[in-house]
Automatic annotation (TrEMBL):
Cross-referenced InterPro entries: Diverse_substrate_MTase, Methyltransf_11, SAM-dependent_MTases_sf
Gene Ontology terms describing biological process: methylation
CDD domains hit by this protein: AdoMet_MTases
Similarity-based family: Belongs to the methyltransferase superfamily.
Transmembrane parts of this sequence: none
Species assigned in the record: Azospirillum thiophilum
Designated name of the protein: SAM-dependent methyltransferase
Methyltransferase type domain residues: 42-133
Superkingdom classification of source: Bacteria
Keyword Transferase listed: yes
Molecular function as annotated in GO: S-adenosylmethionine-dependent methyltransferase activity
Alphabetical keyword list: Methyltransferase, Transferase
Length: 255
């Protein structure tokens, strides 16, 4: 049995502080695809970045993550129940989930870490008839300047290239090679957007698993050199620039 791939517990606080927010349209689109809006399961929820957005559309959200550190830092919400459990066996969580209870099962920026055949077996177990299932991911951000984009790409693919976990490239490829054995449902184009200063962007990039791995391997923080490279391209570091993350959404119906 594959072990839990924990790339984020050591910096769960930074993850919560710096990760971008999902657009309201994502939860809306998934709610529209579900047969009803009773219960959603957010698998691999991290510290609830998307769980609370789902709670605005569903009567209840069961949010699970295999990282106890992430769950300990999750954002509280009256309609969200958090539990520590692997996505491949929701029965291990506090209370678990019974058969045939979920209107929506979603994994946001998480499915590439899962043992997918086992996760899909659990999806089929907990799904109501015609329930919706969605895998969501986002890869490299896009800025408002080609020179900045080029610098970020060099850092991501070059400096960090050897240090990314292998499953990261499933995200970079937009889940194109991921097995998704459910009849597809339509979903509109969606993206996350933000206005960030340079320190805010660097804070976000500090949460990347590739940055953490490179620092462990080399004994130095690779972001320090990158910050020196990008600073003259950015200008005033407090200037806020528009940043965009196109979302990949694999949306299907459980038979």
């Amino acid at each position: 049995m594959p072990s839990f791939k924990d790339h984020f517990s050591g910096h769960a606080g930074d993850y919560r502080a710096f990760r971008p927010s999902y657009p309201d349209g994502l939860a809306a689109a998934l709610a529209d695809a579900a047969p009803s809006t009773g219960l959603a399961w957010d698998a691999g929820c991290g510290n609830g970045q998307f769980s609370t957005a789902l709670a605005a559309r569903f009567a209840a959200v069961h949010a699970t993550d295999a990282s106890a550190d992430q769950i300990a830092r999750a954002e509280a919400h009256d309609r969200v129940r958090y539990a520590v459990a692997p996505a491949e066996d929701i029965g291990l969580s506090d209370g678990g989930l019974p058969d045939g209870c979920c209107d929506l099962i979603v994994a946001a920026q998480a499915a590439h870490w899962f043992d997918l055949p086992r996760f899909y077996a659990e999806v089929r177990r907990v799904a109501k008839p015609a329930a919706a299932v969605a895998l969501v991911c986002y890869a490299l951000q896009r800025l408002d300047d080609p020179a900045l984009d080029a610098a970020v790409e060099r850092f991501h693919n070059g400096t960090l290239g050897p240090h990314w976990p292998a499953d990261r490239w499933k995200v970079v490829n937009g889940y194109r090679d991921l097995d998704f054995p459910f009849p597809a449902l339509p979903v509109p184009p969606l993206a996350m957007e933000a206005l960030w200063s340079l320190p805010r962007l660097l804070g976000y990039m500090s949460t990347w698993s590739g940055v953490k791995a490179a620092a462990r391997a080399t004994g130095r923080n690779p972001l320090e050199e990158f910050a020196e490279e990008i600073a003259p391209l950015w200008g005033d570091p407090e200037t806020e620039r528009r940043i965009r993350w196109p979302l990949t959404v694999l949306l299907g119906q459980v038979g």
